[in-house]
Amino acid sequence: MKLFSKKPKPYEPPMHIDKYWPIYRENVFVDKKKSRLPHWTAPLFTLLAIILIVFYLAPTISRRVINLGQNRDAEGQQISRSYTDLDRVVLSPVADVYDAPDIKARRLVQVLYNEPVTLIDQPTHYGFRQVELQDGFTGYMRESDLSTFCDAAEPSLAVNKLVVATGSKRIMSHAKTGTLVAEVMMGTVLYADYRGDGISRVLLPSGESGWISDDGLIILPPDGRVVPVDEGARYLTTTTLTFLNVTTLDHGVTIYGASIPGIVYVSAAVNGLDVPRQMSGQIQAGQAVSLARVEETGLVDPRILMPGDLLFFSRSGSASDLDRMAICITPNSLLVENQGRSSIRLLDPAKDEALWQTLVAVRRLFPSDSVISASAESN
Q: Which distant-in-sequence residues (6+ apart) come within 8 Å of 203 by Cβ?
């Protein structure tokens, strides 16, 4: 009797690993396919989430919580704000105001970062809004240049008012190290809700907060004003020289593009004077200076000039038809837009008789300085 119906298979050695390789490459497995992401991906995403929370979400939330607390005084009463639903603040470091709701329209003036404006009309004109500035000047601005976060210009929420008195200043995201949030120009007014050792935290039109160093700032009480000082004309001329060699820009007010009327407006503001924004208004500012003439030539005697005087020129000879303006640095040196109106330069009036012949008016912003000067000369 046979114990086995079939012959046993002959012995075969185990298959070599090389013979399994084609099967492995074809993914013929019961096991789940492993992820192709590198092992360090999860820790990286975790780190990025922590950075987002620490450097963005936490400061934003904490600032808003602080603001909520600041909105009430010690007795829990709501703080009364000075703005309305029609008020806005300028969001850009500098923004244009046009004579029509069109980007190709004529620029009337420029306004600075955080400057309050009031909407005149509710409808939007092709992305523009008609606005009224604080001095009553009206025009059209792009809506993208405006912010509804008027707390940035609210004195009742601040411990100090800061006025930029140098060419420009940087606002950073953090007190010691951080990224640039905005570069603000001379004449910009900011409000600080905290001041430390040489640095201030300011509320921004974007709804966030930033940090700015105290150098180059005039630091005032929240509702304070810059007060003119003795020898104000000297300080004014020093301020205007910040714009020497700056590129000319019609109605510009910054070191990135300026006009003589714009330089006068900003420089006067940081020296405590309220001067109209445009040349047509500036010819009424200050005190008129009598135009004594040289008998031999009939031209205005340059010795009548004092530092800080404003000079107005008209080819037609009419003060109502002005075409050029200058600031007296010394009787022999005027700050003007150069001949091609490409930059701001110094000019010796004796070397440009054609321009000097068109002088129609001189205005003195600091009349008291002339009295002081005359007294010093007599002594």
A: 67, 151, 152, 154, 157, 158, 190, 191, 192, 193, 209
